[in-house]
Amino acid sequence: MTTQGLDAPRPAGTDTLGAHTVRQLLRLCEVAGLAGEDAEIYARTLTEMLGPVAARPLDLPPATPTFLSDDHTPVEFSLAFVPDTAPTLRVLLEPGSGAGGLAQSGRTGLHIVREAARAWGFTTDRLDELEDLFFPPSPEGPLALWCALELRPGGIPKVKVYLNPAASGQKRAARTVREALHRLGHRQAFAALPPSDRHLFFALDLGDWEDPRVKVYLAHHDLTAAEAGALNRMEAGPSPGQTEAFFEIAAGHDVDADAGAGGPGFAAGGEARPARRPVQSCHAFTETATGLPSGFTLYVPVRDYALHDGEALARAAALLTHHGLDPAPLVRAVAAVTSRQPEDGVGLIAYLALAHQQGRPPRVTTYISSEAYEVRPPVGGRRAEAATAP
Fold first, then answer.
1. How far is CA 135 from the centre of its chain?
2. Which residues pair with 281 in a beta bridge?
3. How far is 141 from 128, CA to CA, in rounded Å?
4. 41 contacts 155 by C-beta, under 8 angstroms
5. β partners of residue 88
6. Spatial CB neighbours of 203, under 8 Å, sequence gap ≥ 6
7. Which terminus has fewer CB within 10 Å in the chain: N or C?
8. pLDDT at position 254, please?
9. Mean pLDDT computed over 309-333
10. DSSP β-ladder status, 363-369 and 349-357
11. CA distance 5 to 334
C-alpha cells in the first residue's frame, strides 16, 4: 500500500471504514515524518486490528456504538508534541468493535492484543494477571478493551491497553482499581489518587517501554482552573499555576465565569451548549517504593468548550506556542484527516492534554477524530455535512 492515489475520488457507496481510516493514517504518517515503508506497515496493522469491521461500508451505520468517539468511529488519532523533534503519532482503536456485546468484544480484544504480542515479541503477563477483574462473564460499562499504538520508525509500535474499572459495576470500580494496583505491586498507589467523580480507565504499557507505566484515569465534573491545579500528586510535578494556565488556554479563559455569561450549559450569546464531558486526570505509576505517581496528565474535552473547531484549533495552537512548540504540524494534521473547514463542525479536535513525566519535558497532545460517520454541527451554527473527510 502506498500514498499514491489518496486524492482520487471515492466511488459513491463503496468506501469502507478501513479504507477511510487508512487514508487518514497514511497522511498523518507524513506529518509525523514516518517513512513510506513504516506507514504501509502501520496501515496494514490498523486494518488487521480492526478486523471484519474494517470492510464495513460507510454508507451503513456503525456496527456497534463505541464510547471512543462522538460518531462511533472505533478509531482516534493523536499527535504528541515535545521540543526539538517531530510529533509522535498515535492511534487509539477498539479491536473488538463490531464483535457483539461487551463480553465478546473483550474476548476479541484480548485475542488481538495477544496476537500482537506474539508478532512483536512482548509479553502480556501483567494484562493476563488482571483478566478476571476486567473481563467478568457479564461485563458492564461503555467499553471492554481499547488498544493504543504509538507509531515509531521500524514498523513496531509501542502498545498500551485501556480497561474498564466498572466492568463489574460502577459501585465496584474503585475496588477494582485498588485490587489491580495491588496485584501489580503498587500497594500504596490508590491512596495517592486525588478525589474524583469516578474511575474512568485503567491502562497498562505493554512491551518495549523504558519505564512501563500503570495508569489510572479519573473523571472530574464541573472542574475549575484552581481545582485542576490541585490534582497533581507527583513529588516534583507541575506547579498549580502551570496546570491552571493549561486549563485556561484549553477550556477558554472565561471558563470559570460561565455562570456570569448565561450560566453553565450556555455558550456566548445564550445558545444552548451540550452537556460537557468531564475533565480527566491521569496518574501514572512506575515505581512501588513511595506509592507516588511519576506522571500526571490533564485532559480537557475541548470540543465541549468551543463553539466550533476553529476555536479548538486556535486554542491548541496557542497551547503549543505557550510551550515553545510549533503548531504547523497540527494544522497539517487537521488537513490530513478532513477537507471540511474547522468552523463547519465541532469535535474534530476532541481533547487537549498536557502530560508531565519525571525526567522528561512536558508533552502536549492533541486528539483528532476520524469523523468517518458524522460531523457534529457547530454550536449555534449550520449543520455540517456528514462523512465528507477524504
1. 21
2. 218, 298
3. 20
4. yes
5. 80
6. 160, 161, 162, 163, 213, 214, 215, 216, 217, 282
7. N
8. 57
9. 97
10. antiparallel
11. 19
Give the cell for residue 30.
507524513
Residues in Cβ contact with 388 at an 8 Å cutoff, skipping those fewer than 6 apart: 338, 339, 340, 375
**Residues 386/59, Cβ–Cβ less than 8 Å:** no
Which residue pairs, CB below 8 angstroms and at least 24 apart, start in 40-47?
A: 40/1, 40/2, 41/155, 42/91, 42/149, 42/151, 42/155, 42/157, 43/1, 44/1, 45/149, 45/157, 46/18, 46/21, 46/22, 46/75, 46/91, 46/93, 46/149, 47/18, 47/22
Phi/psi for 320 (5° steps) reads -60, -45
Say which residues have a Cβ less than 8 Å from residue 192's Cβ, sequence separation at least 6. Answer: 233, 283, 291, 292, 293
Interval 193-218: pLDDT, tens = 999 999 999 999 999 899 999 999 99
What is the phi/psi pair of residue 173, to 5°?
-60, -45
Helix or strand (DSSP H, E) at 150: strand 145-150
**Which amino acid would we find at residue 150?**
E
Task: Tell me 70's DSSP state.
Answer: T
Helix axes 36-50, 17-31, angle to 10 degrees: 150
Grid-cell match 471484519, residue found: 52
Task: Give the containing element (helix H, strand E) for 21.
Answer: helix 17-31
Burial of 205 from C-beta contacts in 10 A (0-12 / 13-18 / 19+): buried
Q: Residue type at 199?
A: H
- Residue 264 pLDDT exceeds 70: no
Query: What is the pTM (predicted TM-score) of this model?
Result: 0.91
Q: What separation in angstroms does the CA of 108 have from each of 49, 51, 102?
A: 10, 10, 10
